[in-house]
Amino acid sequence: MSAQVSAPQIQFDNSYARDxxxxxxxxxxxxxxxxxxxxxxxVLAEExxxxxxxxxxxxxxxxxxxxxxxxxxxxxxxxxxxxQFGHFSPQLGDGRALLLGEVIDTQGCRRDIAFKGSGRTPFxxxxxxxxxxxxxxxxxxxxxxxxxxxxxxxxALAAVATGGQxxxxxxxxxxxLCRVAAxxxxxxxxxxxxxxxxxxxxxxxxxxxxxxxxxxxIELPESERYAGLLDAVIRRQAALxxxxxxxxxxxxxxxxxxxxxxxxxxxxxxxxxxxHYDPQTVFSSIxxxxxxxxxxxxxxxxxxxxxxxxxxxPLIATDQDRAHERALALLHxxxxxxxxxxxxxxxxxxxxxxxxxxELALAADFLALLQSHALDYTLAHRRLADAAAGxxxxxxxxxxxxxxxxxxxxxxxxxLTQHGDAQAKAMRRVNPxxxxxxxxxxxxxxxxxxxxxxAPFERLLEVLAKPFxxxxxxxxxxxxxxxxxxxxxxxxxxx
Length: 495
What we know:
By secondary structure, this protein is an alpha+beta fold. It contains 19 helices and twelve strands.
Protein backbone atom coordinates (compact mmCIF):
# COMPACT_ATOMS: atom_id res chain seq x y z
CA MET A 1 0.00 0.00 0.00
CA SER A 2 1.54 3.31 -1.08
CA ALA A 3 1.98 6.15 1.40
CA GLN A 4 -0.67 8.84 1.27
CA VAL A 5 0.52 12.12 -0.26
CA SER A 6 -0.57 15.19 1.67
CA ALA A 7 -2.27 18.10 -0.08
CA PRO A 8 0.09 20.83 -1.37
CA GLN A 9 0.95 23.57 1.08
CA ILE A 10 1.72 26.86 -0.65
CA GLN A 11 2.83 29.82 1.45
CA PHE A 12 1.36 32.80 -0.35
CA ASP A 13 2.31 36.42 0.35
CA ASN A 14 0.16 38.47 -2.01
CA SER A 15 1.64 41.94 -2.13
CA TYR A 16 -0.09 42.93 -5.38
CA ALA A 17 -3.53 42.25 -3.92
CA ARG A 18 -2.56 43.86 -0.63
CA ASP A 19 -0.81 47.00 -1.88
CA UNK A 20 -2.69 47.76 -5.09
CA UNK A 21 -6.35 47.63 -4.13
CA UNK A 22 -8.56 48.98 -6.97
CA UNK A 23 -5.92 48.14 -9.61
CA UNK A 24 -7.40 44.72 -10.34
CA UNK A 25 -10.62 42.69 -10.21
CA UNK A 26 -11.04 39.79 -7.80
CA UNK A 27 -11.97 36.71 -9.83
CA UNK A 28 -12.09 32.94 -9.70
CA UNK A 29 -10.86 30.33 -12.21
CA UNK A 30 -13.59 28.54 -14.11
CA UNK A 31 -12.23 25.08 -13.37
CA UNK A 32 -11.69 22.05 -15.57
CA UNK A 33 -14.22 19.28 -16.27
CA UNK A 34 -11.80 16.34 -16.54
CA UNK A 35 -8.28 17.58 -15.77
CA UNK A 36 -5.16 15.63 -16.62
CA UNK A 37 -1.66 16.67 -15.61
CA UNK A 38 0.40 16.79 -18.80
CA UNK A 39 3.60 17.95 -17.17
CA UNK A 40 4.80 19.30 -13.85
CA UNK A 41 8.07 21.22 -13.76
CA UNK A 42 9.49 19.51 -10.68
CA VAL A 43 12.74 21.50 -10.72
CA LEU A 44 10.85 24.79 -10.74
CA ALA A 45 8.44 23.52 -8.07
CA GLU A 46 11.40 22.87 -5.79
CA GLU A 47 12.83 26.32 -6.54
CA UNK A 48 9.52 27.76 -5.38
CA UNK A 49 9.67 25.75 -2.16
CA UNK A 50 6.79 23.50 -3.21
CA UNK A 51 6.48 19.77 -2.63
CA UNK A 52 6.62 18.38 -6.17
CA UNK A 53 5.11 15.05 -5.14
CA UNK A 54 2.16 16.82 -3.54
CA UNK A 55 1.73 19.06 -6.58
CA UNK A 56 1.53 15.96 -8.79
CA UNK A 57 -1.09 14.34 -6.58
CA UNK A 58 -4.86 14.49 -7.24
CA UNK A 59 -5.12 17.34 -4.73
CA UNK A 60 -2.31 19.17 -6.52
CA UNK A 61 -3.99 18.61 -9.87
CA UNK A 62 -7.19 20.14 -8.49
CA UNK A 63 -5.21 23.30 -7.70
CA UNK A 64 -3.40 23.42 -11.04
CA UNK A 65 -6.65 22.85 -12.95
CA UNK A 66 -8.42 25.72 -11.19
CA UNK A 67 -10.91 23.39 -9.52
CA UNK A 68 -9.80 24.34 -6.03
CA UNK A 69 -8.26 27.63 -4.96
CA UNK A 70 -5.46 26.95 -2.48
CA UNK A 71 -5.63 28.44 0.97
CA UNK A 72 -3.95 31.83 1.10
CA UNK A 73 -4.27 32.52 -2.62
CA UNK A 74 -5.95 35.71 -3.83
CA UNK A 75 -6.99 35.15 -7.47
CA UNK A 76 -7.28 38.38 -9.44
CA UNK A 77 -7.34 39.69 -12.98
CA UNK A 78 -4.87 42.51 -13.55
CA UNK A 79 -5.84 45.63 -15.45
CA UNK A 80 -3.61 46.90 -18.24
CA UNK A 81 -3.77 48.67 -21.57
CA UNK A 82 -1.37 48.44 -24.50
CA UNK A 83 -0.18 49.62 -27.86
CA GLN A 84 -0.87 46.74 -30.24
CA PHE A 85 0.95 47.07 -33.56
CA GLY A 86 1.31 50.77 -32.77
CA HIS A 87 -2.37 51.41 -32.01
CA PHE A 88 -3.47 52.15 -28.45
CA SER A 89 -6.07 49.97 -26.76
CA PRO A 90 -7.04 51.67 -23.50
CA GLN A 91 -8.35 48.49 -21.87
CA LEU A 92 -6.92 45.01 -22.34
CA GLY A 93 -6.22 43.26 -19.04
CA ASP A 94 -6.11 39.60 -18.08
CA GLY A 95 -8.70 38.26 -20.47
CA ARG A 96 -7.66 34.63 -20.08
CA ALA A 97 -5.26 34.83 -17.14
CA LEU A 98 -5.46 35.07 -13.36
CA LEU A 99 -2.76 35.95 -10.86
CA LEU A 100 -3.25 33.22 -8.28
CA GLY A 101 -0.81 34.70 -5.79
CA GLU A 102 2.84 35.23 -4.92
CA VAL A 103 5.39 33.09 -3.13
CA ILE A 104 8.86 33.75 -1.80
CA ASP A 105 11.13 31.17 -3.40
CA THR A 106 14.06 29.33 -1.86
CA GLN A 107 16.41 32.18 -2.87
CA GLY A 108 14.24 34.79 -1.18
CA CYS A 109 12.84 36.14 -4.47
CA ARG A 110 9.16 37.03 -4.87
CA ARG A 111 7.52 35.12 -7.74
CA ASP A 112 4.05 35.30 -9.24
CA ILE A 113 2.08 32.11 -9.81
CA ALA A 114 -0.58 32.66 -12.44
CA PHE A 115 -2.98 30.75 -14.65
CA LYS A 116 -3.35 31.17 -18.39
CA GLY A 117 -6.47 29.73 -19.98
CA SER A 118 -8.48 29.52 -16.76
CA GLY A 119 -11.69 31.08 -18.14
CA ARG A 120 -13.36 34.38 -18.87
CA THR A 121 -12.75 37.50 -16.78
CA PRO A 122 -14.21 41.02 -16.92
CA PHE A 123 -11.35 41.83 -19.34
CA UNK A 124 -12.12 39.05 -21.84
CA UNK A 125 -13.73 41.44 -24.36
CA UNK A 126 -15.97 38.74 -25.82
CA UNK A 127 -13.33 36.01 -25.78
CA UNK A 128 -13.79 32.66 -24.08
CA UNK A 129 -10.82 33.10 -21.72
CA UNK A 130 -9.63 29.60 -22.53
CA UNK A 131 -6.45 28.21 -24.07
CA UNK A 132 -5.83 25.36 -26.46
CA UNK A 133 -3.39 22.58 -25.68
CA UNK A 134 -0.94 23.39 -28.51
CA UNK A 135 -0.22 27.01 -27.50
CA UNK A 136 0.06 25.99 -23.82
CA UNK A 137 2.68 23.39 -24.70
CA UNK A 138 4.44 25.89 -26.96
CA UNK A 139 4.75 28.37 -24.09
CA UNK A 140 5.99 25.65 -21.76
CA UNK A 141 8.56 24.49 -24.30
CA UNK A 142 9.78 27.92 -25.39
CA UNK A 143 9.97 29.34 -21.88
CA UNK A 144 12.03 26.43 -20.63
CA UNK A 145 14.27 26.60 -23.69
CA UNK A 146 14.92 30.29 -23.11
CA UNK A 147 15.66 29.62 -19.44
CA UNK A 148 18.21 26.97 -20.42
CA UNK A 149 19.79 29.48 -22.83
CA UNK A 150 20.25 31.85 -19.89
CA UNK A 151 17.71 34.41 -21.13
CA UNK A 152 15.36 36.02 -18.56
CA UNK A 153 11.90 34.57 -19.03
CA UNK A 154 8.63 33.62 -17.45
CA UNK A 155 8.47 29.87 -16.88
CA ALA A 156 5.89 27.12 -16.77
CA LEU A 157 5.20 25.33 -13.51
CA ALA A 158 2.66 22.99 -15.10
CA ALA A 159 0.56 22.23 -18.16
CA VAL A 160 -2.86 20.70 -17.53
CA ALA A 161 -5.32 19.36 -20.08
CA THR A 162 -8.78 20.50 -18.97
CA GLY A 163 -10.75 17.70 -20.57
CA GLY A 164 -12.84 20.30 -22.37
CA GLN A 165 -12.61 21.72 -25.86
CA UNK A 166 -12.08 25.22 -27.21
CA UNK A 167 -13.22 26.57 -30.54
CA UNK A 168 -10.62 28.28 -32.69
CA UNK A 169 -10.62 27.54 -36.42
CA UNK A 170 -11.81 24.11 -35.25
CA UNK A 171 -12.45 22.32 -31.97
CA UNK A 172 -9.24 21.74 -30.06
CA UNK A 173 -8.41 20.18 -26.68
CA UNK A 174 -8.31 22.79 -23.93
CA UNK A 175 -5.49 23.34 -21.45
CA UNK A 176 -4.28 25.60 -18.65
CA LEU A 177 -0.73 26.84 -18.22
CA CYS A 178 0.50 27.63 -14.72
CA ARG A 179 3.03 30.39 -15.28
CA VAL A 180 5.70 31.74 -12.94
CA ALA A 181 7.15 35.24 -13.29
CA ALA A 182 9.21 37.76 -11.35
CA UNK A 183 6.03 39.81 -11.78
CA UNK A 184 3.37 40.39 -14.41
CA UNK A 185 3.84 44.18 -14.40
CA UNK A 186 3.91 45.43 -17.99
CA UNK A 187 4.45 48.71 -19.77
CA UNK A 188 0.74 48.42 -20.55
CA UNK A 189 -0.08 48.30 -16.81
CA UNK A 190 1.29 51.82 -16.47
CA UNK A 191 -0.40 52.94 -19.68
CA UNK A 192 -3.79 51.88 -18.27
CA UNK A 193 -3.66 54.35 -15.38
CA UNK A 194 -1.79 57.06 -17.27
CA UNK A 195 -4.50 57.06 -19.96
CA UNK A 196 -7.09 57.67 -17.24
CA UNK A 197 -4.96 60.45 -15.76
CA UNK A 198 -5.20 58.71 -12.40
CA UNK A 199 -1.98 59.97 -10.90
CA UNK A 200 -2.68 58.54 -7.45
CA UNK A 201 -2.97 54.96 -8.76
CA UNK A 202 -0.10 55.51 -11.17
CA UNK A 203 2.12 56.57 -8.29
CA UNK A 204 1.06 53.58 -6.19
CA UNK A 205 1.85 51.29 -9.11
CA UNK A 206 5.26 52.88 -9.67
CA UNK A 207 6.11 52.69 -5.96
CA UNK A 208 5.09 49.04 -5.95
CA UNK A 209 7.28 48.31 -8.99
CA UNK A 210 10.22 50.05 -7.32
CA UNK A 211 9.82 48.13 -4.06
CA UNK A 212 9.55 44.86 -5.98
CA UNK A 213 12.19 45.23 -8.68
CA UNK A 214 14.45 48.16 -7.80
CA UNK A 215 14.41 48.59 -4.01
CA UNK A 216 17.66 50.60 -4.05
CA UNK A 217 15.67 53.45 -5.63
CA ILE A 218 13.59 53.81 -2.47
CA GLU A 219 16.47 55.72 -0.89
CA LEU A 220 16.46 58.34 -3.65
CA PRO A 221 14.51 61.59 -3.37
CA GLU A 222 11.17 61.50 -5.16
CA SER A 223 12.55 63.85 -7.81
CA GLU A 224 14.94 61.07 -8.90
CA ARG A 225 13.07 57.90 -7.95
CA TYR A 226 10.74 57.58 -10.94
CA ALA A 227 13.40 58.59 -13.45
CA GLY A 228 15.48 55.87 -11.80
CA LEU A 229 12.71 53.35 -12.49
CA LEU A 230 12.64 54.34 -16.15
CA ASP A 231 16.43 54.03 -16.34
CA ALA A 232 16.39 50.58 -14.72
CA VAL A 233 13.72 49.24 -17.09
CA ILE A 234 15.59 50.66 -20.11
CA ARG A 235 18.78 48.88 -19.01
CA ARG A 236 17.00 45.58 -18.42
CA GLN A 237 15.23 45.68 -21.77
CA ALA A 238 18.43 46.61 -23.63
CA ALA A 239 20.13 43.54 -22.14
CA LEU A 240 17.14 41.30 -22.86
CA UNK A 241 16.75 42.29 -26.51
CA UNK A 242 20.48 41.82 -27.11
CA UNK A 243 20.14 38.29 -25.78
CA UNK A 244 17.15 37.63 -28.07
CA UNK A 245 19.19 38.82 -31.02
CA UNK A 246 22.11 36.62 -30.01
CA UNK A 247 20.09 33.40 -30.39
CA UNK A 248 17.85 34.43 -33.29
CA UNK A 249 14.67 34.66 -31.22
CA UNK A 250 11.73 36.52 -32.76
CA UNK A 251 9.01 37.42 -30.27
CA UNK A 252 6.50 38.12 -33.01
CA UNK A 253 4.15 40.42 -31.09
CA UNK A 254 6.13 43.05 -29.20
CA UNK A 255 3.13 45.07 -28.08
CA UNK A 256 3.56 47.18 -24.95
CA UNK A 257 1.36 44.79 -22.99
CA UNK A 258 3.99 42.13 -23.76
CA UNK A 259 6.94 44.10 -22.35
CA UNK A 260 7.67 43.45 -18.69
CA UNK A 261 9.05 45.85 -16.12
CA UNK A 262 11.16 42.99 -14.73
CA UNK A 263 13.02 42.44 -18.01
CA UNK A 264 11.67 38.92 -18.52
CA UNK A 265 10.45 37.52 -21.83
CA UNK A 266 6.68 37.03 -21.63
CA UNK A 267 3.83 35.72 -23.80
CA UNK A 268 5.11 33.13 -26.26
CA UNK A 269 2.41 33.49 -28.88
CA UNK A 270 3.55 33.72 -32.53
CA UNK A 271 7.22 33.49 -31.55
CA UNK A 272 9.84 31.54 -33.49
CA UNK A 273 13.58 31.12 -33.97
CA UNK A 274 15.29 32.39 -37.09
CA UNK A 275 17.19 29.76 -39.08
CA HIS A 276 19.02 31.29 -42.06
CA TYR A 277 20.16 34.77 -41.14
CA ASP A 278 17.96 37.59 -42.42
CA PRO A 279 17.08 40.67 -40.35
CA GLN A 280 13.74 40.92 -42.16
CA THR A 281 12.61 37.49 -40.96
CA VAL A 282 8.95 37.39 -39.89
CA PHE A 283 7.01 34.24 -39.04
CA SER A 284 3.98 35.72 -37.27
CA SER A 285 0.81 35.45 -39.36
CA ILE A 286 -0.55 38.66 -37.83
CA UNK A 287 2.57 40.75 -38.49
CA UNK A 288 1.77 41.43 -42.12
CA UNK A 289 3.83 44.62 -42.32
CA UNK A 290 6.93 43.21 -40.65
CA UNK A 291 6.75 45.64 -37.73
CA UNK A 292 8.18 43.02 -35.39
CA UNK A 293 10.71 41.47 -37.77
CA UNK A 294 13.89 40.09 -36.22
CA UNK A 295 16.04 43.10 -37.05
CA UNK A 296 13.39 45.58 -35.87
CA UNK A 297 13.27 44.31 -32.30
CA UNK A 298 15.78 46.78 -30.77
CA UNK A 299 14.05 49.86 -32.19
CA UNK A 300 10.61 48.49 -31.27
CA UNK A 301 11.85 47.99 -27.72
CA UNK A 302 12.91 51.64 -27.63
CA UNK A 303 9.52 52.67 -29.05
CA UNK A 304 7.76 50.69 -26.32
CA UNK A 305 9.99 52.26 -23.69
CA UNK A 306 8.99 55.68 -24.98
CA UNK A 307 5.39 54.76 -24.17
CA UNK A 308 6.53 53.76 -20.67
CA UNK A 309 8.31 57.09 -20.31
CA UNK A 310 5.17 58.96 -21.38
CA UNK A 311 3.21 57.15 -18.68
CA UNK A 312 5.72 58.16 -16.01
CA UNK A 313 5.93 61.86 -16.98
CA PRO A 314 3.58 63.12 -14.23
CA LEU A 315 5.76 61.37 -11.65
CA ILE A 316 9.17 62.31 -13.02
CA ALA A 317 8.61 66.05 -12.48
CA THR A 318 5.73 68.43 -11.84
CA ASP A 319 7.19 70.74 -14.49
CA GLN A 320 6.29 68.82 -17.65
CA ASP A 321 8.99 70.47 -19.75
CA ARG A 322 11.56 69.24 -17.27
CA ALA A 323 9.88 65.81 -17.16
CA HIS A 324 10.05 65.53 -20.98
CA GLU A 325 13.69 66.59 -21.00
CA ARG A 326 14.64 64.05 -18.34
CA ALA A 327 12.69 61.21 -19.95
CA LEU A 328 14.05 61.94 -23.41
CA ALA A 329 17.63 61.88 -22.17
CA LEU A 330 17.03 58.47 -20.61
CA LEU A 331 15.35 57.14 -23.76
CA HIS A 332 18.34 58.21 -25.81
CA UNK A 333 20.48 56.04 -23.51
CA UNK A 334 18.77 52.88 -24.78
CA UNK A 335 20.88 52.75 -27.95
CA UNK A 336 24.29 52.93 -26.22
CA UNK A 337 23.08 50.46 -23.56
CA UNK A 338 21.91 48.05 -26.25
CA UNK A 339 25.01 48.48 -28.40
CA UNK A 340 27.26 47.82 -25.39
CA UNK A 341 25.36 44.61 -24.63
CA UNK A 342 25.39 43.56 -28.29
CA UNK A 343 29.10 44.26 -28.75
CA UNK A 344 29.96 42.24 -25.65
CA UNK A 345 27.81 39.38 -26.89
CA UNK A 346 29.38 39.47 -30.35
CA UNK A 347 32.83 39.49 -28.80
CA UNK A 348 31.96 36.34 -26.84
CA UNK A 349 30.18 34.58 -29.72
CA UNK A 350 33.05 35.15 -32.17
CA UNK A 351 35.86 34.76 -29.63
CA UNK A 352 37.26 38.21 -30.37
CA UNK A 353 40.00 39.79 -28.30
CA UNK A 354 38.30 43.17 -27.98
CA UNK A 355 35.66 45.53 -29.32
CA UNK A 356 37.73 47.80 -31.53
CA UNK A 357 36.77 48.96 -35.00
CA UNK A 358 38.40 45.97 -36.68
CA GLU A 359 36.51 43.53 -34.46
CA LEU A 360 33.19 45.30 -35.00
CA ALA A 361 33.72 45.29 -38.76
CA LEU A 362 34.61 41.61 -38.67
CA ALA A 363 31.42 40.77 -36.74
CA ALA A 364 29.29 42.77 -39.16
CA ASP A 365 30.94 41.10 -42.14
CA PHE A 366 30.24 37.65 -40.71
CA LEU A 367 26.52 38.45 -40.49
CA ALA A 368 26.63 39.85 -44.02
CA LEU A 369 28.14 36.57 -45.24
CA LEU A 370 25.41 34.57 -43.50
CA GLN A 371 22.71 36.76 -45.01
CA SER A 372 24.05 36.78 -48.56
CA HIS A 373 24.32 32.98 -48.60
CA ALA A 374 21.20 32.21 -46.48
CA LEU A 375 23.25 30.30 -43.90
CA ASP A 376 21.97 29.04 -40.59
CA TYR A 377 22.57 31.58 -37.81
CA THR A 378 22.93 29.05 -34.98
CA LEU A 379 25.09 26.49 -36.76
CA ALA A 380 27.41 29.09 -38.29
CA HIS A 381 28.40 30.41 -34.86
CA ARG A 382 28.68 26.95 -33.38
CA ARG A 383 30.87 25.68 -36.22
CA LEU A 384 33.07 28.74 -35.82
CA ALA A 385 33.83 27.45 -32.33
CA ASP A 386 34.95 24.18 -33.94
CA ALA A 387 37.29 26.21 -36.14
CA ALA A 388 38.72 27.88 -33.05
CA ALA A 389 39.64 24.39 -31.82
CA GLY A 390 41.41 23.66 -35.10
CA UNK A 391 38.63 21.85 -36.95
CA UNK A 392 37.49 24.01 -39.86
CA UNK A 393 35.79 21.18 -41.79
CA UNK A 394 32.24 21.57 -40.33
CA UNK A 395 32.30 25.33 -40.97
CA UNK A 396 33.59 24.92 -44.52
CA UNK A 397 30.96 22.28 -45.20
CA UNK A 398 28.25 24.64 -43.97
CA UNK A 399 29.47 27.44 -46.27
CA UNK A 400 29.72 25.13 -49.29
CA UNK A 401 30.24 27.15 -52.48
CA UNK A 402 30.81 30.29 -50.38
CA UNK A 403 34.06 28.83 -49.04
CA UNK A 404 36.34 31.35 -50.85
CA UNK A 405 34.55 34.23 -49.11
CA UNK A 406 34.74 32.35 -45.83
CA UNK A 407 38.50 31.89 -46.27
CA UNK A 408 39.02 35.61 -46.72
CA UNK A 409 36.99 36.30 -43.59
CA UNK A 410 38.78 33.58 -41.58
CA UNK A 411 42.14 35.11 -42.38
CA UNK A 412 41.05 38.32 -40.66
CA UNK A 413 39.37 36.39 -37.83
CA UNK A 414 42.51 34.46 -36.91
CA UNK A 415 44.36 37.75 -36.47
CA LEU A 416 41.77 39.03 -33.99
CA THR A 417 41.21 35.91 -31.87
CA GLN A 418 43.13 33.76 -29.44
CA HIS A 419 42.06 30.47 -30.96
CA GLY A 420 42.65 27.15 -29.26
CA ASP A 421 40.74 24.68 -27.10
CA ALA A 422 40.16 27.17 -24.28
CA GLN A 423 38.74 29.73 -26.71
CA ALA A 424 36.57 27.10 -28.39
CA LYS A 425 35.12 26.05 -25.02
CA ALA A 426 34.36 29.66 -24.16
CA MET A 427 32.60 30.16 -27.50
CA ARG A 428 30.56 26.99 -27.04
CA ARG A 429 29.31 28.32 -23.72
CA VAL A 430 27.56 31.19 -25.52
CA ASN A 431 26.76 29.61 -28.89
CA PRO A 432 24.08 26.92 -28.50
CA UNK A 433 23.96 23.86 -30.71
CA UNK A 434 20.28 23.22 -29.93
CA UNK A 435 17.49 25.79 -30.20
CA UNK A 436 13.74 25.16 -30.55
CA UNK A 437 13.79 24.53 -34.29
CA UNK A 438 10.40 25.54 -35.64
CA UNK A 439 9.70 22.30 -37.49
CA UNK A 440 10.59 20.24 -34.45
CA UNK A 441 8.37 22.33 -32.20
CA UNK A 442 5.48 21.90 -34.62
CA UNK A 443 6.03 18.15 -34.88
CA UNK A 444 5.99 17.81 -31.08
CA UNK A 445 2.83 19.90 -30.73
CA UNK A 446 1.06 18.11 -33.57
CA UNK A 447 1.76 14.71 -31.99
CA UNK A 448 0.42 15.94 -28.65
CA UNK A 449 -2.72 17.60 -30.01
CA UNK A 450 -3.67 15.17 -32.77
CA UNK A 451 -2.61 11.86 -31.23
CA UNK A 452 -2.23 12.55 -27.47
CA UNK A 453 1.38 11.48 -27.95
CA UNK A 454 3.53 13.55 -25.62
CA ALA A 455 6.76 11.61 -26.18
CA PRO A 456 8.10 14.00 -28.87
CA PHE A 457 7.32 16.97 -26.60
CA GLU A 458 9.15 15.35 -23.68
CA ARG A 459 12.12 14.40 -25.86
CA LEU A 460 12.44 17.92 -27.26
CA LEU A 461 12.28 19.38 -23.75
CA GLU A 462 15.06 17.00 -22.72
CA VAL A 463 17.30 18.09 -25.61
CA LEU A 464 16.67 21.81 -25.09
CA ALA A 465 17.43 21.59 -21.37
CA LYS A 466 21.16 21.38 -22.26
CA PRO A 467 21.48 23.58 -25.35
CA PHE A 468 25.26 24.08 -25.24
CA UNK A 469 26.33 20.42 -24.91
CA UNK A 470 26.65 18.75 -28.31
CA UNK A 471 25.62 15.10 -28.28
CA UNK A 472 25.93 12.68 -31.19
CA UNK A 473 22.59 11.03 -30.43
CA UNK A 474 20.84 14.40 -30.71
CA UNK A 475 22.37 15.45 -34.04
CA UNK A 476 18.96 15.61 -35.74
CA UNK A 477 17.84 18.32 -33.32
CA UNK A 478 20.64 20.61 -34.53
CA UNK A 479 19.57 20.49 -38.15
CA UNK A 480 17.49 23.29 -39.70
CA UNK A 481 14.36 22.59 -41.68
CA UNK A 482 14.50 22.44 -45.45
CA UNK A 483 14.47 25.91 -47.00
CA UNK A 484 11.12 25.15 -48.61
CA UNK A 485 9.61 24.46 -45.18
CA UNK A 486 11.04 27.59 -43.59
CA UNK A 487 9.89 29.76 -46.52
CA UNK A 488 6.21 29.03 -45.84
CA UNK A 489 6.36 28.62 -42.05
CA UNK A 490 3.86 30.75 -40.11
CA UNK A 491 3.14 31.06 -36.41
CA UNK A 492 -0.20 32.01 -34.91
CA UNK A 493 -1.34 33.75 -31.75
CA UNK A 494 -3.32 30.68 -30.78
CA UNK A 495 -3.95 30.88 -27.04
